[in-house]
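Holo model, calcium ion. Inputs:
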Amino acid sequence: MKYSLSGQVKLSMALVVIGTANLTMASITDKTDARCEAALTAKFTESAPRDRFSFVNTSSAAWSVKNITVELASAKGNLVFDTQRGGAGVEVFQPYRLESTSAEVADVQIPDDGGQTITIRFDKFPAGADYVFSIDIDDQLTDSSLGNIRVTGGELTGTTVMAEFVSDTGARETQTASFKADYKTNLMAACT
Ligand SMILES: [Ca+2]
Ligand SMILES: [Ca+2]
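Output:
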């Protein structure tokens, strides 16, 4: 009986220590949700002649981003990548271009003109690193508020970002989120 009580006390103390460690790690990860260890922020910047996608791995230290897929098919504005002259898209066209990154890109599945999917795979995309590419996106609405050449937040809404995360210990998590009208979205995984 005496031994059993002592064991319970030790267990409680251990749980307190674990709980504190988790809280510290999570608060670095994301102040708005203290329960997820893997996280990626995505931002779209509408601009002429190039539109820009920016990503930051805001995970805790153990989690890297393995790949990112941006899918336009479910966007409210019926969006397409305008990467070549003629065909889909209006006025200027812009192929994929890497703008800046502190990650290491393995390869990019570049969309065809009029395509709606781009996938980027990374050799290294550790916590704290960023990745920015530019391209041209046009909407295909017949009644477009800023014209087909410019994409509003409302037209971008519904565009999905899918990311796969991998941890130092080999754990894998896949998460999907949709852009909102503020041109941003957050993916969070490995949540407790
Ligand atoms: Ca085109
Ligand atoms: Ca455009």
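The pocket of calcium ion (ligand 1) is lined by residues 82, 84, 86-89, 93, 113 (CB under 6 Å). DSSP finds two helices and twelve strands in the chain.
Archived with the compound record.
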